[in-house]
Request: fold
Amino acid sequence: MEDRGWIVQAEMHSLRRFEPDYFLQRFTSPPLAFQPGQFVMVKPSGSLDLFLPRAYSILRVQRLSTGSRGKKVNVVEILYKVLGKGTTALSQLKPGDRVDLLGPLGNGYHVTQGVTTAILVAGGIGVPPVVALAERLASSRFTVHGSRRKSVGRRSSDTDRRSSDFDETSASSVEPLGRAVIGHRKMVAFVGGKSSTDALCLTDLRKAGAVLHVATEDGSLGHQGLVTDLLESYLRSSGHSAELSRSLDGHRSTIYACGPHPMLYAVTQIAERFQISCQLSLEAEMACGFGACMGCVIPVKSPELRVESLGQSVNREPSTVNERRYKLCCKDGPAFDAREIAW
Amino acid sequence: MVKGKQKKRSRSTVHSSRKQRSRAPDRERTRGKRPDLRVEIAGLPLKNPVMTASGTFGYGTEFTPFFDLNALGAIIVKTVTMHPRLGNAPPRIAETAAGMLNSIGLQNVGIDGFRREKLPFLQTLATPLLVNIAGKSVEEFADLAKRLSDAEGVAGIELNISCPNVAGGLDYGTDPRLTYEVVRAVRQTTTLPVIPKLSPNVTDVTVIARAAADAGADALSLINTIVGMAIDVRTRKPKLPGNTGGLSGPAIRPIAVRMVWEVAQVVKLPLIGIGGIMTGEDAIEFFLAGASAVQVGTANYLDPLAPMKVLAGIEAYLIRHGFDAVTPLIGTVLPPDPETE
Ligand SMILES: Cc1cc2nc3c(=O)[nH]c(=O)nc-3n(C[C@H](O)[C@H](O)[C@H](O)COP(=O)(O)OP(=O)(O)OC[C@H]3O[C@@H](n4cnc5c(N)ncnc54)[C@H](O)[C@@H]3O)c2cc1C
Ligand SMILES: Cc1cc2nc3c(=O)[nH]c(=O)nc-3n(C[C@H](O)[C@H](O)[C@H](O)COP(=O)(O)O)c2cc1C
Ligand code: FES
Reply:
């Protein structure tokens, strides 16, 4: 986290509503480098009734020209659904209103080397980190080994964005991944929601070059049913099998998912069945977002439990499958390897 | 006032600093000068009265991206127990009005893990480190204290006899006899300053405070969190799986100020005020009530720079009100105006 910016006060830049109750919100910030899957903690400054900040995945960081003079500002974008106190308060902010905004925080998706098909799975409001990843992969498609130093130093300010229109985000506007990667040849995105209005960011994903599969529970858009059904039939039809642990055309795949808990559980099981590596972005109740409160624990499987007593440590196998360990969602995650999670 | 570094700890020096509480501020002399923020707690000279509250500051490293930890008066880290503790099942946090409930359950790496993994970093700091401990028995408290006494870089021990989130965690802090026993056992094991941390979950906190003082405590910290409960009316279930949790944040500040004030009337030990401190003026309230230092807790979560802002706020108050130091303020709350018809 050393190289990255920390903002603790920011201003609302702009807000846009998507019916029925989704909001895309921008905050002015210093130029920030972030990993897809990282998040910010945000709340309106000074409120006490709404006491704790809430975590929001970073959708995008970009440089915009504002006004007729073409003055440039850097903004952080988040996308949320209005549910309770925190999101209601954010949705009522006016441009220029102060917020406490801290980040980027946590560990985002880890893009492994040699992955050639990125399978993105998003359910409902789980879409922001997935879109962030798609846009990053699109921009870093040709990044190769040894480019690390270069790409770390590069900021979003390198890219000249003129548009202040939310929809006009081209893939080239995002910064390249700060790691030595990759060569994704293909991106397949699965997006699910209750209804057509809950399947978000479809344009963004398409623009990033993803082949899109949409499922809605009411059938108002795409396949009627669950997004995991689509994922499963895709994997079957593309010839993935546990025996090969890669698709028939020789490509390795990785699944990157974010969404409601049941969806993530289903995705994990599918990934296991097809033996595809899988990363999940998880949620937990957070107070701080940076490892200070130990509130945001995620139960993980404990391959070996170390019990310490009187100065000596004894390693022993877990005696039951229920023996667990905790990791911090905010610091160890929010992106985790699906195999780690104790559901 | 504290004059430079004191080699020997003695309670009398603390008392003499409290005697000067009534000295009137000298506006002429302080003009343009920065106020003296030094205080002394349990014989430890501190460069300023702002510490971090146990469990709200991780093990320090989480805050290094934000500010220089040496700017703190002292650092207090998460409670350490004899054995590593997994802590309670999630969710562990529930927001409440102007505060939060937590039920962490003392998740920590245990004393050996602490010494091995956490202490080396803390030893690199110049600011004093107070280690907060919780034992399951009087013997375990004493044993923990012993293991810290021969560790380098530990300036004092805070006794968590007041955790509401573990079975039996409150016992030692709600029964004056047990408080006495624990404090005395630790007192007899270590020469380090011993600072019991008191629970607000009692009818009369002064009884516990007296017991701790009689047993040889060097200072008292107060308060820990207040047992509370929140129910989700949508699901009609408690928001925390263990039903109750510990309430912290600005919501508890008036209770904490009251308890510091009550204890200051009956016990002549330096007090460390804790509870909902978000700003410098919140801290001043505690000084006036009788605290010699403060700990910033939940505020750290909302703003990792909170301790620095509290410190700056204290200094600004002192300048604005013509005080040349913090100590003349301690315990000087004025009597209320006489009642009028
Ligand atoms: C790492 C991380 C990233 C996240 N990223 C995003 C993101 O990108 N976008 C996003 O929208 N959220 C995101 N969240 C969730 C977000 O932090 C909040 O928990 C969520 O927005 C609800 O906050 P709130 O203050 O509106 O609800 P609160 O008032 O805190 O309510 C608490 C919970 O009760 C439920 N609830 C409240 N009101 C209702 C209601 N009327 N109907 C049904 N359920 C209700 C919600 O599930 C909510 O989580 C993320 C969380 C984490 C941990
Ligand atoms: C999440 C959380 C964890 C805490 N953990 C501990 C702990 O391990 N040991 C302890 O003595 N106090 C612990 N406390 C209590 C605080 O140190 C402090 O006494 C209390 O929160 C009141 O101060 P505040 O209102 O400023 O937070 C914890 C508080 C919170 C909110
Ligand atoms: S939210 Fe505080 S430790 Fe993760």
About this structure: The pocket of flavin mononucleotide (ligand 2) is lined by residues A 293, 295; B 53-56, 78-79, 102, 104, 106, 132, 160, 163, 197, 224-225, 248-249, 252, 274-277, 297-299 (CB under 6 Å).
